[in-house]
Write a structure and sequence with these properties.
2 domains; mainly beta; 5-stranded antiparallel β-sheet; 1 helix; Immunoglobulin-like; disordered N terminus
C-alpha cells in the first residue's frame, strides 16, 4: 500500500468514525431518575452556569396522591445524586412542580398541593448549593380553602432572587387572576401579600415569567373576555421594586390569542411569542420585542408563521445573553399532513427574524412537544418527540452559532424499543452543557418513569481509574498492502456495564463501545505509520454514568 493510499485510508476511517457517532457528547443511554415500580410524571429541569442540574417531578404514592421528588446532577462527578429526595409532605397530594436555578447552583422549586380537608396550597423549597440541603419546613406561597391554583411558574436571576407567578380563582369575583411573589436572596424571605397582576374582572390564565441578570422580570399571560382572548404583559423593575401598570396588550385586536411564552436577555430586553386566530380561520404565530432602552414593546406584531389550514402548537422561545433568540413550534405540514418541528432565529444586531422557517424534524413523521434552550454565546439545543408507525423517540438537535447551522441528523435520546416518551424539557448552562428530562412509559410493564440525558460540552471529570491500560502497535502485512493497528487492553472496573473508547479528552469523538462481558480490548485499524494517537477508555455503569477512565498514547 502506497503512503498516499494509507493517508487517504486514514482520513476516510476518521470521517467514518465521526459519521457513526455524531451524538458522542450525549451521555447515552438515558438514565432512569425516578424509583422503579413507582409511577412518575411531570418532570421539569434546570441548570446552573457551570452545568450542575436539578430535576423535579411527581410520583404516585399508590392512593391517588402525588409527592414531589428531586435529584441533582453534579457536573464534576458526572453523577446524579442518590437517593431521590421528597420535597413535599407524604400526606398531601402535590403536582405541577417547577424548578429554577441561579448562576451559582442555588435552586427554588414550587408546586401545588391539596390536603385531605380540601385546602389548596402553593408551596416552595430552596436548595442551598453551599450546604447541599433543601430548606425546611415547606413555605406556603398562597393558600385558600376554596381557591384553585394553576400553572405556577418560577424564574431566578444570576444572584438568586426569584419571582413566582400563578393563576388563582378570586374569592370575590369568581374569576381567575394572575398573582405573583418575589424571593429576596439577601433576606431569605418571600414578599407578602401576593400582588395581583391581571384585572380581577376577567379570567386570566397561562402565566409565564422570565428574569434578566439583575433581577428585572417580564410576566405574560392570556386574559379572556366574553368574545376575545388577549396576551398581556407587565414588567418588574428591580430598582424600584414595582410592577408596571397598566398591563400592555401585546396581541392587539385578534379574536383569539393564547399560549404565550417569554424570554429575556442579560440586559432586560424581552421577546414574547404566542399563537393567534383572526376569526377567518387564519392561524398565526406572533411575536413582539421589549426594548430595555426605550421601555417600549415593538409594533406592529411580527408574524413568525401563518397558514389558513395549518395548526400551530407549543411555540417556545429562548434568548442568549446578547439578545439573540430562537423560537420553535409544531406545525402541520400541508404536504404530508404530519406535524413537524420548525424554528426561526432572531438576530439582535439586525433586529430581524430569519426566513424561511427551518424544519428540524422529519416531515414524514409526527413531531410535537418542542422545547428550546440557549447558552450565553447563542448556541442552542432543541428537543421534541417524534413518532413512527411503531415507535416514539425524544430527539435533539444543536444550533452552532459559529456556523449558523443546526446539527444533522437528529439524535435519538430515548430507546424506541423500551419506552414511549413524552413532554421533554431542556435547560443549558452558560458554557453549553445540556440536561434533558422527559416522562416515559416502559413498554414491558406500562410503568411511568422519569428519564434524563446529559450533553457535555467540555472536558468530563471522572473520579475512578481503570487499571492496567496497555497498548501497542501491530502490523498485518498482505501481498499488496499492510494494515497498521493500534491495540488496547485493560482490566475490568467493578460496576462497569460497558466501556467507551474516545479519541479526545472532551469525550466527544466516540469510536467504539464494548460490553463488559466481552473481551476488554480494542483495535483501531488503518493507523498512519509513525503517527501517535491518544485513546481515552471510559467505564460506564448500568445507569449511563461515567465512573472510571484511563488514557494511553500509542
Amino acid at each position: 500500500m502506497s503512503d498516499k493510499v494509507k493517508v487517504l485510508f486514514c482520513v476516510f476511517w476518521l470521517f467514518f468514525q465521526l459519521f457513526l457517532y455524531p451524538s458522542a457528547n450525549w451521555r447515552l443511554p438515558a438514565i432512569d431518575l425516578s424509583d422503579d415500580a413507582i409511577a412518575a410524571v411531570g418532570v421539569q429541569v434546570a441548570m446552573d452556569a457551570t452545568g450542575n442540574a436539578i430535576a423535579v417531578w411527581s410520583i404516585s404514592d399508590g392512593s391517588g396522591r402525588f409527592i414531589i421528588q428531586t435529584r441533582r446532577y453534579d457536573v464534576t462527578t458526572g453523577l446524579w445524586a442518590t437517593p431521590t429526595i421528597n420535597l413535599s409532605a407524604i400526606a398531601i397530594a402535590a403536582d405541577e412542580p417547577q424548578i429554577a436555578m441561579d448562576a451559582a447552583g442555588n435552586a427554588i422549586a414550587v408546586w401545588s398541593t391539596t390536603d385531605g380537608a380540601g385546602d389548596r396550597f402553593l408551596e416552595t423549597k430552596r436548595y442551598d448549593v453551599t450546604t447541599g440541603v433543601w430548606s425546611t419546613p415547606v413555605i406556603n406561597l398562597d393558600s385558600n380553602l376554596q381557591a384553585s391554583f394553576f400553572d405556577v411558574q418560577v424564574a431566578m436571576d444570576v444572584a438568586g432572587n426569584a419571582i413566582a407567578v400563578w393563576s388563582k380563582r378570586d374569592d370575590g369575583t369568581g374569576k381567575f387572576v394572575i398573582q405573583t411573589k418575589r424571593y429576596n436572596v439577601t433576606t431569605g424571605v418571600w414578599s407578602a401579600p401576593a400582588i395581583v397582576l391581571s384585572e380581577a374582572t376577567q379570567n386570566a390564565s397561562d402565566p409565564q415569567i422570565a428574569m434578566d441578570a439583575t433581577g428585572n422580570a417580564t410576566a405574560v399571560w392570556t386574559i379572556s373576555s366574553e368574545t376575545q382572548e388577549f396576551v398581556q404583559a407587565k414588567r418588574y423593575d428591580a430598582t424600584t421594586g414595582l410592577w408596571s401598570t397598566p398591563a400592555v396588550n401585546l396581541s392587539g385586536s385578534v379574536i383569539f390569542a393564547n399560549e404565550p411564552q417569554v424570554a429575556m436577555d442579560a440586559s432586560g430586553n424581552a421577546i414574547a411569542v404566542w399563537s393567534t386566530t383572526d376569526g377567518t380561520g387564519l392561524r398565526i404565530l406572533a411575536t413582539k420585542k421589549y426594548d430595555i432602552t426605550t421601555g417600549v414593546w415593538s409594533t406592529p406584531v411580527i408574524n413568525l408563521d401563518s397558514n389558513l389550514q395549518a395548526s400551530f402548537f407549543d411555540v417556545q422561545i429562548a434568548m442568549d445573553v446578547a439578545g439573540n433568540a430562537i423560537a420553535v413550534w409544531s406545525k402541520r405540514d400541508d404536504g404530508t399532513g404530519k406535524f413537524v418541528i420548525q424554528t426561526k432565529r432572531y438576530d439582535a444586531i439586525t433586529g430581524v427574524w430569519s426566513t424561511p422557517a427551518i424544519a428540524l424534524s422529519n416531515a414524514t413523521q409526527n413531531a410535537d412537544d418542542p422545547q428550546v434552550a440557549m447558552d450565553a454565546t447563542g448556541n442552542a439545543t432543541a428537543v421534541w418527540t417524534i413518532s413512527s408507525e411503531t415507535q416514539k423517540f425524544v430527539q435533539a438537535k444543536s444550533y452552532d452559532v459559529t456556523t449558523g447551522l443546526w446539527s444533522t441528523p437528529a439524535v435519538n435520546l430515548s430507546d424506541g424499543e423500551e419506552v414511549i416518551p413524552r413532554e421533554p424539557q431542556v435547560a443549558m448552562s452558560v458554557g453549553g452543557n445540556v440536561v434533558v428530562g422527559w416522562e416515559s412509559i416502559r413498554v414491558a410493564d406500562d410503568q411511568e418513569l422519569i428519564q434524563a440525558a446529559i450533553y457535555s460540552s467540555g472536558i468530563v471529570h471522572i473520579n475512578g481509574i481503570i487499571q492496567n491500560l496497555v497498548g501497542r502497535k501491530t502490523c498485518h502485512r498482505f501481498p499488496t498492502q499492510s494494515d497498521v493497528i493500534d491495540f488496547l487492553q485493560w482490566d475490568a472496573f467493578e460496576g462497569a456495564a460497558k466501556y467507551r473508547i474516545y479519541l479526545d479528552e472532551n469525550l466527544s469523538n466516540l469510536v467504539s463501545e464494548i460490553p463488559s462481558n466481552q473481551n476488554l480490548s480494542f483495535e483501531f485499524h488503518g493507523r498512519c505509520p509513525g503517527k501517535k494517537k491518544t485513546y481515552y477508555v471510559v467505564a460506564v455503569d448500568k445507569n449511563g454514568n461515567n465512573v472510571a477512565t484511563a488514557s494511553i498514547t500509542i
